[in-house]
Amino acid sequence: MTKSKSSFPESTNPHQIKVSLRGKSILDNPRFNKGSAFTREERDHFGLRGRLPFAVDTLEEQVDRAYKQYQARETDILKNSFLASMKAQNWTLYYALLSSHLVEMFPIVYTPTEADAIADYSHLFRRSEGLFLSPPDIDKMEEDFLDACEGRNLDLIVVSDAEAILGIGDQGSGGIGISSAKAVIYTLAAGIDPARALAVTLDVGTNNEDLLNDPLYIGYKNKRLRGEKYDEFVDKFVGLVKKYQPKSLLHFEDFGVSNAQKLLARYRDQLSIFNDDIQGTGAVTLAALQAAIAVTKSKLSDQRTVIYGSGSAGLGIARQLRDATKLESDGKVDSKEAASKFWLMDKNGLIKNSLGKDKIRDEIEDEFIRQEDDWGKDENDLLEVIKKVKPAVLIGTSTHTGAFTEEVVKEMAKHVDRPIIFPLSNPTRKCEADPKDVNQWTDGKALMATGSPFPPVEIPGQEKKYVVAECNNALIYPGLGLGTILSRSKSMTDSMIVAGAKRLSELAPALKDPDESLLPEFGDAAQVNFEVALAVMAAAKDAGVAREEKMPDDEDERRDWAENKRWEANYAEYVYDKDGLK
């Protein structure tokens, strides 16, 4: 098979595009459809006069009309369905509407509402998008991949095997929903051209009995592929990305804990690979922690950290903080010494040598396993660990509701003036502690970040309130991706991720007022991620992995160059050309 050629060359006039589609074909193409915004001249040239109402709308008028239609939907799932339908009709209007109401609509197109849509995917299904790959067609995978990529040079490929979706677990073929949603956020928050992004689901079966017993389930109705056959399937897919789209970023999303780290370790040095559940969660937590320690005027290497919950998120956070500690020391601290500052806990209690190998998962590195001999059986309890470790930082990724009890929090506050407490589990009902309780138990001294949005909390004895940061991955992963894409990096290095996290922490409102948030507001996600991307580009150049020869060396020139590369939801002028874009 031959390599697919791009039909998306850089335009000399980005406001004018040559298009070969006419009539119904252009109206049915969401990339080029303008609906009522086609100009009189375009209606003449593209055979649209009788196909559209007479009036010509502006994009702003279309957004206003669409928002009123959106508001008329009574439930969140109906709003999600409305937006999905709009996306299938008109990309520009879809992204313009979302950009105009980002904070309001983000929970609708992503968590928590998208999780409901994914769980009911087979029942809501009307029109497919993206690429579905399943084991029975493994011999035809190359043909199917090339068909999806025909005429396209991709910047971004988001792939999921749907084993661990948004806190709702194994969702089989519904995983295309999370891949699509992540790609949408890349466009909204980083300006990735949606025409240069591809959502993929590796539909390798499901162990969800509800799906297997559902007569309407539209996925591969078999138990999940495991072992060598699973590895072979994923390896073939990654090989196709390397062969045909070698300059794209491959984003892994919501893979099960047993595969997530294994796949990241296997492929991250072969091409630009990113796992949001591991690296994105780790990076945004690192940024919040860096802001917190700036408030406490300490160093990362000074922190003693207990991580309660050691799945993909908890391990990803531990690894990210460990790697950042190493980089902060300029080689004075090795990986083992950096890891010694962490105490990890899971359902078996503290992860320590005396548990035995049968109770310690293979993906947990030896350096995170506590080797001390003086841990008793009673010290597997979180409170007992807090008493012994006396940590400055407590991070929750356990989904154990209320695990950070009053006794635990007060014990921690005995040993540190400003305890750093991050109950990160999603959704809200699974959070380890309510920030208002933590704030009360520490007399307003705790520095907090959560995985779900919480309102500001009262500070005892003061009129002002403490703003609780939301550790939302969308504040950083689009910027990490944009910086990697623009620099055409051959890999996403640890130094690039740490540089992005450092830049995000520098934008924290808490650096100006310690009662403000440890992270920027989500409404500023687009500008925040652009700043992250610039830091990532610089780090890629320093690491020697950047391949983009046109990327300027001068920082100001690089900023302007990068700004001009971002896709925006605006209508271009179309010129009919039979050899133009399709």
From TrEMBL:
SMART domains named among the record's database cross-references: malic, Malic_M
Malic enzyme NAD-binding domain mapped to chain residues: 278-541
Residues in Malic enzyme N-terminal domain copies: 87-268
One Pfam family named in its UniProt record: malic
Keywords from the named record: NAD
Family: Belongs to the malic enzymes family.
PANTHER family per UniProt: MALIC ENZYME-RELATED, NAD-DEPENDENT MALIC ENZYME, MITOCHONDRIAL
Protein's name in the database: Malate dehydrogenase (Oxaloacetate-decarboxylating)
